[in-house]
Amino acid sequence: MSxxxxxxxxxxxxxxxGASLIPPSxxxxxxxxxxxxxxxxxAKTGLRGSHAGSYxxxxxxxxxxxxxxxxxxxxxxxxxxxIVGAGISGLAAAxxxxxxxxxxxxILILDNHDDFGGHAKRNEHHINGQTLLAYGGSxxxxxxxxxxxxxKQLLADLMVDCDQFNEFFDQNFFSDHGLESxxxxxxxTFGEDKVVNYPIxxxxxxxxxxxxxxxxxxEAVKQMPVDAExxxxxxxxxxxxxxxxxxxxxLKKLKYANSTFYFDALKKYYGATHPLVLKMLRGVGSDGAxxxxxxxxxxxALYSGAPGFSMEAMKEIIGEKRFxxxxxxxxxxxxxxxDGNASIARLLxxxxxxxxxxxxxxxDVVLARMKYELLDDKENSVRIRLNSTVVKVExxxxxxxxxxxxxxxxxxxxxxxxxxxxxxxACYNMMIPHLVKGxxxxxxxxxxxxxxxxxxxxxxxxxxxRSFKEKNIGLAYSPGSLHNMAFLDFPVSxxxxxxxxxxxxxxxxxxxxxxxxxxxxxxxxxxxKEGRHKILSKSFDDFENEIKNHLGGMLSGTNFDANNDINSxxxxxxxxxxxxxxxxxxxxxxxxxxKIGRKQFGRISxxxxxxxxxxxxxxxxxxxxxxxxxx
Length: 631
Fold this sequence. Notes:
The protein is of the alpha/beta class. It is built from 24 helices and 17 strands. Helix 3 runs parallel beside helix 16, helix 3 packs parallel to helix 24 and helix 18 (441-448) packs across helix 23 (590-597).
């Protein structure tokens, strides 16, 4: 099978490595004035996310305690605020600080990646002169009506009107094209490549308007390429043939659901003992990217959409109001920009540095081209310095009496230092004890415990989607494949950007890999370590081959040709991905742990979604507001 050409690295107007445009000596006040206007990270494909060059210095600091990177060049400027991390939380912190203290205050934002936004990563695919947008991390504004006052105000400041997504998001796209939520069985695991037009999970609930299956669970199981024992067990589970703990009174049901592992309940009430059955059900939680269902209680599995619960049991256990919202899908999952929450990051950058992009509303930012060469301009009151990994943060004297904080960072192999009157660490919380000298032991321990879950978001530029239309596939759960979910991107058109309307149009599809540990029931943090190793041990060629085989098998029987129909691939690998919230059985104290870890330390405050123990964007923004209020 031939490889995709190196257009994965030169697609559109992009650079093999942005660092090559920056002479080693070009730092200090004129740091970014040397960046070529062609520098445009969103158009890069290949291995992205935590890309090469973004994590090596941090690993050296954390793993081996490295502290000497050669002669230190000290920046003569002193900033009112230095922010570590140009993700949503860091950018929001700069916005809140300006609102509180004035737009004339000097703010420097440092980030180890070659782009701003953190996990709110923008992916661009260029096909036949057309730009297609996709998200490579933070996905959607989930349930914005329930956001805090501070987060709602930030969105209002950015002129984000969530009601308009009712128009932007084509809620009939999938049903109009007969696209369904299906299950794909791959040949390597199941003996043959086969698509069964029935979802054994509820991922489809996140895709507004996707068609329901036209066949019953029993009919679907008959079509599955599995043996009789597996079919018997799956038939009972998927059709809710036996109600979980049916002979319990309500209070006892609640207690049982909250204290019993989902897999244990499956074994007890459904006789689900076959390894293949458990493998197929391990990744069915629709709120995924956290842990597999092997680590969830029956109650948590119920909320995440796992099968095995009758409607009557669910309504009785969780109450009618929550049942309507979480199970029947009363809430619409539509508050999505074409590039996900990357547009929120872009809106924040434009608000902080007006010269960085044209426009003034939530729509025109979608197709705006950011001027990266202006992000660190010395004339800006807010400066964003990319490709800069912070390795040390220390008060200039005793932390209780210090008047400033020194921040050391590594950029392109050289060592630099800046001073800030105050500092906000809006970065990976687990790194903070390796950066900050003198933290209280309890706080340092809590911060080191703030681990993230590994995951991979892959976006693929396709020249057309005729094969998906032919097989009626909108979203596919793939229990045997590396990427366990594959789906056509959210159908959003706004700000002059048009989503595909015809199967002949180019389109972006998404694939997600949540790397679990090999042994079921292992504590999640141990599985995360194993998952990180799996992610970082794979090359782009490994991913490319897996993707081609996956799509070739799933779309077999059509005219799909992976070597011809795939235009570009972007693999957003996040070895430290989502903030971990814990489960009922494992790490239930993560929220309490986060509160201990985020305590202010002298002139240093801590933000990021980690400090809220939630992966959602509102957590990142809320923590930015709290950190600024502390200062």
